[in-house]
Write a structure and sequence with these properties.
alpha+beta; Aminopeptidase; 14-stranded mixed beta sheet
Length: 315
């Protein structure tokens, strides 16, 4: 697909050039399937598309693979923007059943504000409809008004707010107080076991990043732990950053017995010396009171989960 250049998109708004003047022309932008690109080119497209973004993105090919493998990225359905032979943006699409998920979408700074992102998203929506999908999901940072406006114009509807939490003093505070279970040490288990337990015992309708299908794709360095028969946790240690709590789960029949708190204390004792973070993928109405009551605070960055039915969107 050939997209408009920034110069062409703004041509109608510009006065006619003076006689003899030469208007600067931006390179033509093309949209190509992600399968046509190497890992290094895909990482470059990601980095260029998110250049100057609210959250800095600097991915190597290896980090790109690790980040998107877990969400079932479909490179055949994904689109990469190219100008003068160089990647300048992308729309990455993940797929499961009748649903697709915009895993990332962005355009290089010099191509923003010209309608290119809109055309790229429209192309991905048309292809989703042609595949017979019934739901298209995405997440956008709450407060990124240009992106939110674009998605609303395309027909996406905000479904819920996703938040994250942090506890800089986890070791000092999560060890305090009664409730730690003597004789129930942490036992490391296969991360896949945590995903299977989430399928049986987790809440329904979890966001894409917390869905059992996503969790089932996680592998070391992500680690999973069991405390007794009823409590489990999923943890990722990022050197220099801290520990990310990817999931904590207590079986339904054992809830409200202090097992979640005990698990946090056990994890804190087993992984001392670093803060704990929970990425902003947790529905705001899910477990917020639990974490806040245990000294966690809301992170400043939150996301909106938005949804579209491709069958009902305009062609």
């Amino acid at each position: 697909m050939r997209l408009k250049t920034p110069a062409a998109a703004r041509k109608a708004r510009r006065p006619a050039p003076r006689a003899g003047a030469t208007a600067a022309r931006a390179p033509k932008v093309r949209s190509l399937p992600g399968l046509e690109f190497s890992p290094a080119e895909l990482a470059e497209a990601m980095n260029r598309g998110f250049e100057g973004y609210i959250v800095p993105v600097h991915l190597s090919p290896a980090l790109f693979d690790a980040r998107f493998r877990q969400v079932h990225l479909d490179l055949a359905a994904s689109r990469i923007l190219v100008a003068s032979g160089k990647p300048v943006g992308l729309c990455l699409i993940s797929r499961r059943g009748w649903s697709s998920y915009v895993a990332a979408a962005g355009v290089a700074p010099e191509y923003r504000g010209a309608g290119i992102a809109r055309e790229l998203m429209q192309e991905c929506i048309r292809e989703s409809r042609a595949r017979g999908e019934r739901r298209m999901l995405l997440e956008v940072i709450d407060g990124n008004e240009p992106a939110v406006r674009l998605y609303r114009k395309l027909g996406f509807v905000a479904k819920r707010r996703l938040v994250g939490y942090a506890h800089p003093g986890a070791v000092a505070e999560l060890r305090k107080g009664p409730g730690t279970l003597p004789g129930e040490p942490l036992v490391e288990i296969d991360p896949l076991e945590f995903a299977r337990e989430t399928t049986r015992e987790g809440d329904e309708g979890l966001p894409w990043m917390l869905a059992p299908e996503t969790l089932a794709s996680l592998a070391p360095p992500t680690r999973a732990f069991r405390m007794g028969p009823d409590a489990r946790a999923l943890v990722l240690e990022v050197p220099g950053t801290g520990h990310f709590l990817r999931g904590i789960l207590v079986r339904r029949t054992a809830r409200r017995r202090g097992l979640g708190t005990a698990m946090l204390r056990r994890l804190s004792a087993a992984h001392p010396g670093a803060p704990w973070k929970i990425p902003p993928v947790v529905p705001a109405d899910l477990a917020g009171g639990f974490f806040m009551a245990r000294g966690f605070h809301l992170e400043s960055i939150a996301q909106l989960e938005m949804e579209l039915d491709p069958r009902e969107s305009a062609p």
